Amino acid sequence: MVFKKVNDYLYLLIDESYYDTISSALVLPNKLVIVDTGVHVAKMKEFRKYVEEKTSKKFDSLILTHHHSDHVMGNQFFSDCRIIATKTVAQKLKTWKKSMTTEKLARRIEAVEDKSAFDGLDITLPNEIFDDYLEIIDEDIKIVVKRTGGHSKGSTYVYCPNYKILIAGDNLLSNFPPYGADPSSDPDVWINTLREYLTLDVEKYIPGHGKVSDDKLVKYMIEVIENIRDFIKEQVSLGKSKEEVQEEGYAKNFYPIEDDDSFEARAMRYTLSNWYKFWGGK
To answer: Of 86, 138, 201, 226, which is least surrounded by CB within 10 A?
Structure first.
């Protein structure tokens, strides 16, 4: 687990135990804003204390980029703040909380290296809902929160033009193939979203997992998704089955994967299967 000060207005929590999941803290003139709360419950509590002590400011808002569990487990430590999410994300989290059982939680624990990660978990829901666009303004600093979809229907980016930072959630990944297994994933929207990123004045792109990057990562993600799209569309036109597309597509190595038994490998196969249906496969 890494607590990192990038500069005077950006702090990161990077969870090395789960694919370098990133939570980002933005320092505004009078307050702090955090984007996503990661996987490890106790570490998020420590991170809040660390940033508040370093900056002598208090957190005012939490923004959720999407509903997947590896980005929301530490929400409970921001229950005194605005917990902001789109309607889609809020509804997904409400359903997820109702359906969470001891058995389901145990399966999630098995997926992380630190088995104490979820100790004391209290699944905490958003308390402020917006549709597609929201602004947070503190003196002369503005934060834009915009739902675009892509990785999931509720996928949202957080952009600070003053700081030239864009926090992308899982629409951008620097250490993982594009993960399109969510039933609401829309790769056409995803491509358009990434192209939108390139129209903004950004120096630092913060992915959902991996390392802070520049626009080379955005362009690479576009290329990978477009290559997968072109392959699948061609295979669908040839009448290929889902299983054939999965195996042939995986063999094409659209994104470098070292271990065929890894979660990255399964993620690529899930994505190929889901997008096969998206582009008209039967």
So the answer is: 201
- pLDDT over 80 (residue 1): no
Model pTM above 0.85 = yes
Question: The domain containing residue 160 runs over which residues?
Answer: 2-215
In total, the chain counts a number of residues equal to 282
- Does 193 reside within a domain? yes
Q: Are 31 and 138 in contact (CB under 8 A)?
A: yes
At 105, the pLDDT band (50, 70, 90 cuts) reads confident
Rounded distance between C-alpha atoms, residue 156 and residue 117, angstroms: 25
- Would you say 180 and 151 are in contact if contact means Cβ atoms under 8 Å apart? yes
Burial class (CB in 10 A: 0-12, 13-18, 19+), 171: buried
**Looking at residue 109, what is its pLDDT?**
83
Residue 237 belongs to a domain: no
Average pLDDT over the chain, rounded to whole? 96
Scan for tokens 């739902």, then name that residue: 147
Closest CA to 18 of 114, 106, 107, 123: 114
In a domain, 176, yes or no: yes
